[in-house]
């Protein structure tokens, strides 16, 4: 009788141990799957690295790269090689491969965007210097204005930034908080912006304004919400100079209409 009981106990212990082993293996497999999903696997990474060497020797053998690092982009399930040319600050681009080391894409043709990004950063830095110098009671941001791929005709790769001969027209945006949020207050701020920017070498093509109630301002200068705010985009300088509130209201109405159409 005791022998039978002991065998039953041993069988139960073996079953429990087996279950633990199965669960442990399953958890390990899940962990490996999750790790591979976010970081890729070493074998695929090695294959992509070898494929990258062959591709670079074929397509860019005359270029001298400062660094070449490979990482896994889990969103696109691709292994990315990030490249930087030693002789060109703006010649930095990505080459991508799949898990089998097969070529996916190459962003070299878009390297001029790096030059454009550098110009935008320089302009933004200059505009922030203006805000501090003039002690403006609102934040400023900006966008470069151009049509489609027109930027290719406005700048050259590695071109030096010259603020006094800036190739892009700008849109300058003010972010302001006021007790009274209305068109009269908006026009005051917009006229202040024009007055300041007219003294600078930039060509400002349009102005925008995000005017929010003071009560929604938080410590870091951001807003809790845009509720009850007055948001105006793409306002030509001439409209501001005329000071016609009805024109501002028309611009606001057109903006609402565009939003409605984009949602449909």
Q: How would you explain this protein's 3D organization?
A:
The protein is of the alpha+beta class. The chain folds into three domains: 1-39; 42-109; 113-263, no CATH class. It is 45% helix and 22% strand. It has helices at residues 2-39, 42-59, 112-134, 183-197, 237-242, 245-263, and strands at 65-73, 78-85, 92-97, 103-106, 139-144, 170-178, 204-213, 230-236. Strands 1-2-3-4 form a four-stranded antiparallel sheet. It has a four-stranded mixed sheet with strand order 5-6-7-8. Strand 2 and strand 3 (92-97) form a beta hairpin. The protein is extended and about 80 Å long. The N and C termini lie far apart (79 Å).
Strand proportion: 15-25%
Helix content: 40-55%
Largest beta-sheet details: 4 strands, antiparallel
What is the tally of beta strands?
Answer: 8
Runs in which pLDDT lies below 50 for 5 or more consecutive residues are 28-40
Mean pLDDT reading: 84
Class by alpha and beta content = alpha+beta
Order of the strands making up the biggest sheet: 1-2-3-4
Number of helices: 6
State the distance separating the first and last CA atoms: 79 Å
Order of helices and strands: HHEEEEHEEHEEHH
**Apparent shape:** extended
Integer-rounded radius of gyration: 29 Å
How many individual domains?
A: 3
Briefly characterize the structure.
The chain has 264 residues and is of the alpha+beta class.
């Amino acid at each position: 009788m005791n022998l039978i009981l002991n065998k039953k106990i041993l069988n139960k212990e073996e079953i429990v141990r087996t279950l633990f082993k199965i669960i442990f293996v399953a958890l390990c497999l899940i962990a490996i799957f999750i790790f591979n999903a976010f970081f890729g696997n070493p074998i695929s990474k090695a294959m992509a690295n070898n494929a990258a060497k062959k591709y670079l020797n074929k397509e860019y053998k005359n270029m001298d790269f400062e660094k070449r690092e490979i990482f896994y982009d889990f969103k696109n399930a691709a292994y990315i090689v990030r490249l930087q040319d030693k002789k060109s600050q703006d010649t930095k681009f990505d080459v991508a491969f799949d898990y089998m080391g097969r070529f996916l894409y190459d962003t070299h043709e878009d390297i001029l965007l790096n030059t454009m990004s550098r110009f935008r950063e320089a302009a933004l830095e200059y505009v922030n210097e203006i805000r501090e110098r003039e002690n403006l009671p609102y934040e400023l941001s900006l966008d470069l204005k151009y049509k489609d791929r027109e930027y290719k005709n406005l700048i050259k790769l590695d071109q030096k930034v010259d603020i006094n001969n800036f190739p892009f027209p700008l849109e300058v945006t003010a972010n302001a908080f006021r007790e009274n949020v209305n068109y009269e207050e908006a026009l005051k701020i917009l006229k202040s912006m024009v007055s300041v920017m007219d003294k600078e070498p930039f060509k400002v093509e349009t102005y925008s304004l995000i005017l929010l109630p003071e009560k929604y301002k938080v410590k870091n200068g951001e807003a809790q919400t845009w509720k009850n705010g007055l948001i105006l985009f793409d306002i030509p300088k001439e409209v501001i100079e005329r000071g016609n509130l009805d024109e501002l209201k028309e611009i606001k109405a057109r903006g609402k209409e565009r939003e409605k159409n984009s949602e449909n």
